[in-house]
Amino acid sequence: MSAELETYRHPSAAFELPLPAEWERAENVEGCALLAVEPPREDSHFRANVVVTIEQLEQGAELEQWAERSLAALRESLDRLRVIDLDASEIGGLPARRALTHYLHGEFGGVNLEQWSLADGGLGFVVSCSTAALEYDDLWLLTNTVAEGLRVRT
Protein backbone atom coordinates (compact mmCIF):
# COMPACT_ATOMS: atom_id res chain seq x y z
CA MET A 1 0.00 0.00 0.00
CA SER A 2 1.43 3.35 -1.03
CA ALA A 3 1.92 5.95 1.65
CA GLU A 4 1.64 8.83 -0.83
CA LEU A 5 -0.81 11.30 0.71
CA GLU A 6 -2.64 14.21 -0.85
CA THR A 7 -4.76 16.89 0.77
CA TYR A 8 -8.47 16.19 0.45
CA ARG A 9 -10.83 19.18 0.81
CA HIS A 10 -14.51 18.43 1.22
CA PRO A 11 -16.48 20.40 -1.40
CA SER A 12 -19.17 21.66 1.01
CA ALA A 13 -18.19 20.79 4.59
CA ALA A 14 -15.54 22.87 6.30
CA PHE A 15 -12.67 20.41 6.64
CA GLU A 16 -9.63 18.97 4.95
CA LEU A 17 -7.24 16.13 5.74
CA PRO A 18 -4.51 14.08 4.08
CA LEU A 19 -5.61 10.84 2.40
CA PRO A 20 -3.80 8.14 0.44
CA ALA A 21 -3.97 9.22 -3.19
CA GLU A 22 -5.25 5.84 -4.47
CA TRP A 23 -8.06 5.34 -1.93
CA GLU A 24 -11.66 5.40 -3.17
CA ARG A 25 -13.73 8.31 -1.85
CA ALA A 26 -17.42 9.02 -1.48
CA GLU A 27 -19.00 12.12 0.01
CA ASN A 28 -22.21 12.59 1.97
CA VAL A 29 -23.04 8.88 2.26
CA GLU A 30 -25.64 7.94 4.90
CA GLY A 31 -24.73 10.53 7.51
CA CYS A 32 -21.01 10.56 6.69
CA ALA A 33 -19.35 13.61 5.25
CA LEU A 34 -16.58 11.42 3.81
CA LEU A 35 -15.89 7.74 3.35
CA ALA A 36 -12.43 6.78 2.04
CA VAL A 37 -11.51 3.11 1.49
CA GLU A 38 -8.29 1.39 0.54
CA PRO A 39 -8.30 -0.27 -2.89
CA PRO A 40 -9.39 -3.91 -3.06
CA ARG A 41 -6.71 -6.59 -2.98
CA GLU A 42 -6.64 -10.04 -4.55
CA ASP A 43 -7.82 -11.80 -1.37
CA SER A 44 -11.01 -11.15 0.59
CA HIS A 45 -10.21 -8.92 3.54
CA PHE A 46 -11.45 -6.03 5.63
CA ARG A 47 -10.57 -2.87 3.70
CA ALA A 48 -9.03 -0.18 5.86
CA ASN A 49 -11.10 2.98 5.79
CA VAL A 50 -11.47 6.52 7.06
CA VAL A 51 -14.88 8.02 7.83
CA VAL A 52 -15.50 11.65 8.75
CA THR A 53 -18.78 12.58 10.40
CA ILE A 54 -19.98 16.02 11.41
CA GLU A 55 -22.84 16.83 13.71
CA GLN A 56 -24.41 19.93 15.13
CA LEU A 57 -23.69 20.03 18.86
CA GLU A 58 -26.10 21.23 21.49
CA GLN A 59 -25.28 24.69 22.73
CA GLY A 60 -22.79 24.46 25.59
CA ALA A 61 -21.91 20.84 24.82
CA GLU A 62 -18.55 19.82 26.26
CA LEU A 63 -16.12 17.74 24.19
CA GLU A 64 -15.66 15.14 26.93
CA GLN A 65 -19.38 14.47 27.44
CA TRP A 66 -20.10 14.40 23.71
CA ALA A 67 -17.22 11.95 23.12
CA GLU A 68 -18.51 9.71 25.94
CA ARG A 69 -22.02 9.68 24.42
CA SER A 70 -20.51 8.73 21.06
CA LEU A 71 -18.57 5.88 22.66
CA ALA A 72 -21.73 4.66 24.39
CA ALA A 73 -23.51 4.60 21.03
CA LEU A 74 -20.69 2.45 19.61
CA ARG A 75 -21.11 -0.01 22.47
CA GLU A 76 -24.76 -0.43 21.49
CA SER A 77 -24.11 -0.87 17.77
CA LEU A 78 -20.90 -2.93 17.44
CA ASP A 79 -20.47 -6.60 18.37
CA ARG A 80 -18.30 -7.17 21.45
CA LEU A 81 -16.83 -3.69 21.49
CA ARG A 82 -13.85 -3.40 23.82
CA VAL A 83 -12.21 -0.12 24.71
CA ILE A 84 -8.43 -0.46 24.48
CA ASP A 85 -7.34 3.12 25.12
CA LEU A 86 -8.80 6.58 25.73
CA ASP A 87 -6.67 9.68 25.54
CA ALA A 88 -6.84 13.45 25.37
CA SER A 89 -5.21 14.82 22.25
CA GLU A 90 -4.94 17.91 20.08
CA ILE A 91 -5.66 18.25 16.38
CA GLY A 92 -5.02 21.44 14.45
CA GLY A 93 -4.68 23.40 17.69
CA LEU A 94 -8.05 22.16 19.00
CA PRO A 95 -8.55 19.84 21.97
CA ALA A 96 -9.54 16.36 20.84
CA ARG A 97 -10.49 13.03 22.35
CA ARG A 98 -9.04 9.77 20.98
CA ALA A 99 -10.56 6.33 21.52
CA LEU A 100 -9.07 3.05 20.34
CA THR A 101 -11.55 0.18 20.32
CA HIS A 102 -11.81 -3.36 19.00
CA TYR A 103 -14.94 -5.16 17.82
CA LEU A 104 -15.93 -8.36 16.05
CA HIS A 105 -16.94 -8.06 12.40
CA GLY A 106 -19.27 -10.84 11.24
CA GLU A 107 -17.31 -11.64 8.09
CA PHE A 108 -13.74 -10.54 8.75
CA GLY A 109 -13.20 -11.08 12.49
CA GLY A 110 -11.43 -8.52 14.66
CA VAL A 111 -11.46 -4.86 13.64
CA ASN A 112 -9.70 -1.98 15.34
CA LEU A 113 -11.57 1.32 15.27
CA GLU A 114 -9.68 4.43 16.28
CA GLN A 115 -11.62 7.68 16.56
CA TRP A 116 -10.60 11.27 17.11
CA SER A 117 -13.37 13.69 18.16
CA LEU A 118 -13.11 17.46 18.25
CA ALA A 119 -15.50 20.38 18.41
CA ASP A 120 -15.32 23.76 16.75
CA GLY A 121 -17.90 26.44 15.99
CA GLY A 122 -20.80 24.39 17.37
CA LEU A 123 -19.92 21.39 15.20
CA GLY A 124 -18.57 18.03 16.30
CA PHE A 125 -16.10 16.34 13.94
CA VAL A 126 -15.17 12.65 14.23
CA VAL A 127 -12.45 10.98 12.20
CA SER A 128 -12.88 7.19 12.40
CA CYS A 129 -10.13 4.92 11.08
CA SER A 130 -10.87 1.20 10.86
CA THR A 131 -8.40 -1.57 10.10
CA ALA A 132 -8.33 -5.33 10.37
CA ALA A 133 -7.00 -6.00 13.87
CA LEU A 134 -3.98 -7.88 12.54
CA GLU A 135 -3.09 -4.94 10.26
CA TYR A 136 -3.42 -2.22 12.90
CA ASP A 137 0.32 -2.06 13.65
CA ASP A 138 1.14 -1.80 9.94
CA LEU A 139 -1.41 1.00 9.36
CA TRP A 140 -1.09 2.90 12.65
CA LEU A 141 1.24 5.58 11.30
CA LEU A 142 -0.94 6.14 8.23
CA THR A 143 -4.22 6.42 10.14
CA ASN A 144 -2.71 8.68 12.80
CA THR A 145 -1.23 10.93 10.11
CA VAL A 146 -4.64 11.18 8.43
CA ALA A 147 -6.49 11.97 11.67
CA GLU A 148 -3.90 14.39 13.03
CA GLY A 149 -3.93 16.19 9.66
CA LEU A 150 -7.59 17.14 10.01
CA ARG A 151 -8.13 20.88 9.71
CA VAL A 152 -11.55 22.41 10.24
CA ARG A 153 -12.61 25.72 8.77
CA THR A 154 -15.76 26.75 10.65
Give structural notes.
- With 154 residues, the chain is of the alpha+beta class.
- The protein has one domain: Mog1/PsbP, alpha/beta/alpha sandwich (Protein Transport Mog1p, Chain A, 3-Layer(aba) Sandwich), CATH 3.40.1000.
- It is built from 2 helices and 10 strands; from the N terminus they run E-E-E-E-E-H-E-E-E-E-H-E.
- The strands form 2 sheets. The chain has a 7-stranded antiparallel beta sheet, sandwiched between helices.
- A hairpin with a 2-residue loop joins strand 6 and strand 7.
Write down the secondary-structure element order: EEEEEHEEEEHE
Number of domains: 1
**Which sheet architecture does the biggest sheet show?**
7 strands, antiparallel
- N/C terminus separation: 33 Å
CATH top level label: Alpha Beta
Detail the topology: elements first, then pairings:
Layout: E1 5-9, E2 15-20, E3 24-29, E4 32-37, E5 49-56, H1 63-77, E6 82-91, E7 94-105, E8 109-120, E9 123-132, H2 136-148, E10 151-152
Antiparallel strand pairs: 1-2, 2-10, 3-4, 4-5, 5-9, 6-7, 7-8, 8-9
Compact overview of the structure:
The chain is an alpha+beta fold and 154 residues long. 18% of the residues lie in helices and 50% in strands.
Can you give keywords for this protein?
154 residues; alpha+beta; Protein Transport Mog1p, Chain A; 7-stranded antiparallel beta sheet; 3-stranded antiparallel beta sheet; 2 helices; 10 strands; 18% helix; 50% strand
